[in-house]
Amino acid sequence: MADHFGLAAMQAAPGELAKGYLGQVTLADGTKVGVPAVIVNGVDDGPTLVVTTSVHGIEINGTGALLRVVREVNPREMKGTLVAVTCSNPFAFQVGSYYSPFVTAEDGMNLGSVQMWPANPEGVLTERLGAFIGKALEVATHAIDVHSNPDAAIPFTIVNRTAASNEQTRNEMNKMASAWGFTVIDSGPGPGRSVGVVGSSLAHGIPAMTPELTGDMFLREDNTRAGQIGITNVMKALGMLEGELQPQPIPPMEGDFVAAGRLRTEKGGLMWVKQPPGKLLKTGDVVVEMTDLWGDVVEEVKMPIDGYCWSFTGGIAGSHAVTEGTPIAFLFKNSS
C-alpha cells in the first residue's frame, strides 16, 4: 500500500489526487503567482514521475497533453506517484513568450537555463520558480520535461546520454525515450549543463528526457494526444500503469541520431522552406530560400552536412519573416 504523498502544501492519500501550487511569488501589487501542479497518488508503491510543461510560455501544448493524462488516469489503478507540473513558468505562459517577461529589471530569463537543484530561492522571480520545481525534482525517481517546436517539425525526444551520471540512469532514460514513441535524438557529446529540469535531474542520477511536440502554441487534438500517449506509455514502461504501449500516430524514424547544430540565415527577409523536416538531405542541398519583399531571391541556405532538419524555427513566435543572423532550423544526423 502506498503512503500519503506530500509536496509543498499539497497532500494526496493513496488512490487520490491533490491540486495546488509548488510555491508562489508576490508581485508589487500583492498579486500571488504560483506554479500549479497536480499530485496523482497511486494505491501501491512505485516510481515518482515528475512531468513539467510550459517551461517556455510559447510551448503550451505540453500543458494540454499533461492535463489529458490527469483527467483520464485513475489513481486507484496506479502504482507510484505522478507529479504533474501543468505550467512551469506562469509569467512566460501569460504573455506567450519563450522567456519570462521583465517583471523585474533583472529578470527576462529562460527558465530552461535556470539552476533548479541546487536552486536559488532568493534570486529573481524566474529563479524562484526554478527553486519550486527543484523541490519536486528532489523527490523524483524519473522526470520528463515536455517542450514543443513550431510547425514545420517532426516530433522527437532529446536525450543526453553523456550527461547521465551512471549506466543505470542512462539505461532508464533510454527506456523512457523508447517507450514515449518519438524519434530519439542524442544532444551530443559533452558534459551537459546541470540546469533546467533535465540537466538538474541527470546530474543527480535521475533519468530524464525532453520530448518535443509540434505546433507549440496550439492545443490541437493531434499534438496533445501524442503527448498524452507518450506520458502514459512511459508510466506503463515504469510499471505505474498496466497495459500495452500505444504506438504514436507518427512512427519514429529508424536509426541512431545525434544533434548537429543549426542553420542560420545571413540575409533578412522571407523564409521559404524548401524541404520537409525529417527528410535525408545531402551536403549542399538548398533547405531554405530567402527573398526580399519584392520577391527577389537574396540567399539560398544550404545543408552543411548529410543529415536532417528536425524543425524550422523562424523569427519571433516562429514567424517566417526573419532578420539576418537568425537561426532558422535545427539539424541532426546519423551518429555513425
Could you characterize what this model shows?
It is a single chain. The protein is α/β, with parallel strands linked by helices and 336 residues long. The chain folds into two domains: 5-237, 3-Layer(aba) Sandwich (Aminopeptidase); 260-334, OB fold (Dihydrolipoamide Acetyltransferase, E2P), CATH 2.40.50. It contains six helices and 18 strands. It has helices at 61-72, 90-95, 125-137, 167-180, 196-203, 221-237; strands spanning 5-7, 10-12, 17-26, 32-41, 44-52, 79-85, 142-145, 147-149, 156-159, 183-186, 208-214, 257-264, 269-273, 286-291, 297-302, 308-312, 321-322, 327-334. The strands form three sheets. Strands 3, 4, 5, 6, 7, 8, 9, 10, 11, 12, 16 and 18 form a twelve-stranded mixed β-sheet that branches. Strands 15-14-13-17 form a four-stranded antiparallel β-sheet, with no helix packed on it. The longest helix has 17 residues, at 221-237. The protein is globular. The protein starts with a strand and ends with a strand. The model has no long low-confidence stretch (mean pLDDT 94).
Q: What's a concise summary of this model?
A:
The protein is built from six helices and 18 strands. It is α/β, with parallel strands linked by helices and about 325 residues long.
